[in-house]
Specification:
Belongs to the isocitrate lyase/PEP mutase superfamily. The protein has about 300 residues and is α/β, with parallel strands linked by helices. It has 13 helices and 8 strands. Helices cover about 50% and strands about 10% of the residues. Strand 6, helix 9 and strand 7 form a beta-alpha-beta unit. Helix 5 packs across helix 6. The radius of gyration is 21 Å and the shape is globular.
C-alpha cells in the first residue's frame, strides 16, 4: 500500500468541516522534536525563526529558497506523517521561481506553505512599512504555485497570505484573498488581523473557504487562543513564536548567569542523556538492536 503523505493528511483534514489544526512554531530540529514529543499533530516552520536560527538575522527577506527548503525538509522528515506548514515568503521570484519553490517544498515533504504579496525584499508581517506588489502580480504567484502542484501531482496545500491590511485596508485585502481563492489557493490568510471583530468578519466573508489565523502574541493581533479561534470559525491557527520566544528568554538568562557567576547552573534534570532522549536516542538504540547491532549493549548511562 502506498504511504499517505502528510500533505494528503492535511488536505483531508481541511475537507472535514469539523477538523481544526493547531500548529506551534518551530525553527530547528530540537524545537520540532519537543513539539512532536508533546503531541502536536502539525508543526509550523516559521520564517522569522529560520532567519534568526540559521543566520542570526531579523526577518527581512534574508533567507533564500535553499535556506527555507533545507530547514523545512529536515523538520518534515523527523516525523513524515506529521504535517509541516512552512513559510515560503514571496516564492523567491517570479512565476518560474514560485513554481520551483512549490516543487521543492513538495519533494521535501512539506504539507503546506503560504505565499504572500509583499515585494521580494519583504519583512515580518508584524513590522510596519511593508511594500506590496499589485494584485495581478500576487495572483500570478498563486496561479504559478497551483499549476506547479497540479503538474507534479502533489497534494501540497497552498495558503494565500495577504499583507495588504496595513497598507490598503480591509476591503482590498478581502479582494486579494478572493482573487487568490479563484486562482486555486486552498486556504486564506489575512496577516495582521487587528481585532476579534475583524477575525470573525474575514471568516464570514470568505466562507466556506478555510481561513488560517496567525497568532503572533504581542504583535498586531490581539491574543486569541486556539479554542477561541475555532469558535470564530478559523480552520487553522499557527503560533510562530511558541518555540522561539521561550528559547530566547531561557538562553538569555543562562548566558547572563554564566557571564556573572562563571557557570550556567542548569537544573539537575538537564543531563546530556535527557537532551539526547528528546532527540530520539531511545528510538535510535532500538533501530540498532533490531538490526542485530551491538553498539549500545552497554547502555548509555554514565557509571558513577
Amino acid at each position: 500500500m502506498p504511504m499517505i503523505t502528510a500533505a494528503t493528511t492535511l488536505r483531508r483534514s481541511l475537507e472535514d468541516p469539523k477538523s481544526f489544526i493547531t500548529a506551534p512554531g518551530v525553527y530547528d530540529g530540537l524545537s520540532a522534536r519537543i513539539a512532536l514529543n508533546v503531541g502536536f499533530d502539525a508543526l509550523y516552520m516559521t520564517g522569522a525563526g529560520t532567519a534568526a536560527s540559521v543566520h542570526g538575522q531579523a526577518d527581512l527577506g534574508i533567507c533564500t529558497l535553499n535556506d527555507m527548503r533545507a530547514n523545512a525538509e529536515m523538520i518534515a522528515n523527523l516525523s513524515p506523517s506529521t504535517p509541516v506548514i512552512a513559510d515560503a515568503d514571496t516564492g523567491y521570484g517570479g512565476p518560474i521561481m514560485v513554481a520551483r519553490t512549490t516543487e521543492q517544498y513538495s519533494r521535501a515533504g512539506v504539507a503546506a506553505f503560504h505565499l504572500e504579496d509583499q515585494v521580494q525584499t519583504k519583512r515580518c508581517g508584524h513590522l510596519g512599512g511593508k511594500i506590496l506588489v499589485d494584485k495581478d502580480t500576487y495572483v500570478t504567484r498563486i496561479r504559478a504555485a497551483v499549476q506547479a502542484r497540479l503538474r507534479i501531482g502533489s497534494d501540497i496545500v497552498i495558503i494565500a497570505r495577504t499583507d495588504a491590511l496595513q497598507v490598503h485596508g480591509y476591503e482590498e485585502s478581502l479582494a486579494r484573498l478572493r482573487a487568490a481563492r479563484d486562482a486555486g489557493a486552498d486556504v486564506g490568510f489575512l496577516e495582521g488581523v487587528t481585532s476579534r471583530d475583524m477575525a470573525r468578519q474575514i471568516v464570514q466573508d470568505l466562507a466556506p473557504w478555510p481561513v488560517l489565523l496567525n497568532m503572533v502574541e504581542h504583535g498586531a493581533t490581539p491574543s486569541i487562543s486556539a479554542v477561541e479561534a475555532r469558535e470564530l470559525g478559523f480552520r487553522m491557527i499557527i503560533f510562530p513564536f511558541a518555540g522561539l520566544g521561550p528559547a530566547v528568554a531561557a538562553m538569555q538568562e543562562s548566558m547572563e548567569r554564566l557571564k556573572r557567576d562563571g557557570i550556567p547552573n542548569l537544573g539537575k534534570e538537564m543531563t546530556p542523556q535527557m537532551l539526547f532522549r528528546v532527540c530520539g536516542l531511545d528510538e535510535s538504540m532500538q533501530v540498532d538492536a533490531q538490526a542485530g547491532g551491538a553498539a549500545f549493549e552497554g547502555g548509555v548511562e554514565l557509571k558513577k
